[in-house]
Specification:
Elements lengths: L24 E4 L1 H5 L9 H13 L4 E2 L2 E2 L12 H10 L12 E2 L3 H9 L4 E7 L2 H8 L3 H17 L3 E7 L12 H13 L4 E6 L6 H13 L7 E5 L6 H10 L4 E4 L19 H11 L7 H15 L6 H12 L3
Parallel strand pairs: 1-2, 1-9, 3-4, 4-5, 5-6, 6-7, 7-8, 8-9
The structure holds 3-hydroxy-3-methylglutaryl-coenzyme A (HMG) and magnesium ion.
């Protein structure tokens, strides 16, 4: 039996399914969630090239870095230098200030404001243990930290996204009750965030759970238009979970180019849903997203080379392997 690998630029057959959104926004987290877990320091210029290539591939939102404590995430200690480098070049210029960045607290916000950033993201936890591990706070005191952070960000005219982590399960506490997630998520939105990203930090969620969580938020007055879904692919459920999200009307999906990622403070967190795998699904369903798959795969294949290991993305492997064999 002969087997032909798909060539780079190949696309799945387009067969729309009824009842799904016509268009989704892909929120790219590769430079932040993807790189924050890398042990070896990635050179600043490599990070800048990664961001530039992702923007050039058509990703509408690229989360660039984190203004967290540099001791907690040494890989992203060069956040200010990265923004300055991106701003200085012709490709992005002032648009570098539109790239979202994580800020956990007022100190992080001050650092972002100094650079004129226009989009920040806070990140809360749905569980006590992860609030302690990731933020050195309790469920209650994380909100005390976020409250003035969001208030000042909004006063300064910034848009604020809020993440909530451990929405589907926690490596220390096990299953996380849905009402506990809704309570944390509502609190974050009520502070003044425009969007809530529901994080399956350790990738244990399954499709029915996604449906139930989105429905529970709707019952609490938070419709799917205010939600984003953030899946890690630890157990191979991310794309199935995206389909559940699409059926429930959610139109923003976080993903990481090449499937890079993990959280340094969550045991067993592996890479995010790979952006290429998401794009393949959306293309097959005929859902618009604006991303050039070939340019994205080439970027992830290049980044895999920089990091010295193959990409975990199935689509990058299927298409990137073919590309590696083609003549220069
Ligand atoms: P802390 O030790 O409690 O900090 O850490 P503090 O408030 O007590 O301050 C101690 C010192 O740190 C002070 O300096 C502050 O100024 C300084 P001193 O007065 O002693 O000289 N400091 C800072 N310096 C620079 N930038 C800052 C900053 N804040 C304080 N922003 C803190 C609390 C929140 C800072 C710490 O826990 C932290 O940085 N955590 C970040 C952890 C992290 O980045 N995790 C990964 C991102 S979350 C994620 O990946 C999940 C997600 O993808 C969704 C999902 O998958 O679920 C989003
Ligand atoms: Mg994450």
């Amino acid at each position: 039996m002969t087997h032909r690998e798909p060539a780079i630029g190949a696309l799945p057959m387009r067969v729309p399914a009824p009842g799904l959104p016509e268009r989704v926004t892909i929120y790219e987290v590769g430079p932040r969630d993807g790189l924050q877990n890398e042990q070896a320091l990635v050179p600043l210029e490599t990070k800048a090239t990664f961001v530039r290539r992702l923007v050039a591939a058509g990703l509408p939102v690229v989360e660039a870095t984190s203004f967290v404590h540099p001791r907690w995430v040494p890989q992203l200690a060069d956040a200010a230098e990265l923004v300055a480098l991106l701003e200085a070049d012709d490709q992005l210029g002032d648009r570098a200030r539109d790239l979202p960045v994580l800020v956990p607290n007022e100190r992080g916000l001050d650092r972002a404001l100094e650079l004129g950033m226009r989009h920040v993201a806070i990140f809360g936890s749905a569980t006590e243990t992860f609030a302690a591990k990731n933020l050195n706070r309790t469920l209650a005191t994380q909100m005390e930290m976020f409250e003035p952070t969001v208030a000042r960000a909004r006063e300064a005219g910034l848009d604020v996204r809020a993440y909530v982590s451990m929405c589907f399960g926690d490596p220390w506490e096990g299953p996380v009750p849905i009402d506990q997630v809704v309570t944390a998520g509502r609190q974050l939105l009520d502070l003044g965030a425009s969007q809530l990203s529901l994080g399956d930090t350790i990738g244990v969620g399954t499709a029915g759970h996604v449906t139930a969580l989105v429905e529970a938020f709707a019952e609490a007055g938070v419709g799917p238009e205010r939600l984003a879904l953030h899946f890690h692919d630890t157990y191979g459920q991310a794309l199935s979970n995206v389909q559940a999200g699409l059926r429930a009307g959610v139109t923003t999906y976080d993903a990481s180019a090449g499937g890079l990622g993990g959280c340094p403070y969550a045991v067993s967190a592996t890479g995010n849903l790979a952006t290429e795998d998401l794009v393949w699904l959306l293309d097959g369903l005929g859902i618009e997203h604006g991303v050039d798959l070939g340019a994205l795969v080439a970027t992830s294949a290049w980044m895999a080379g920089e990091l010295g290991r193959p990409s975990p993305s199935a689509v990058v492997r299927a298409l990137g392997a073919d590309r590696a064999q083609s003549p220069a």
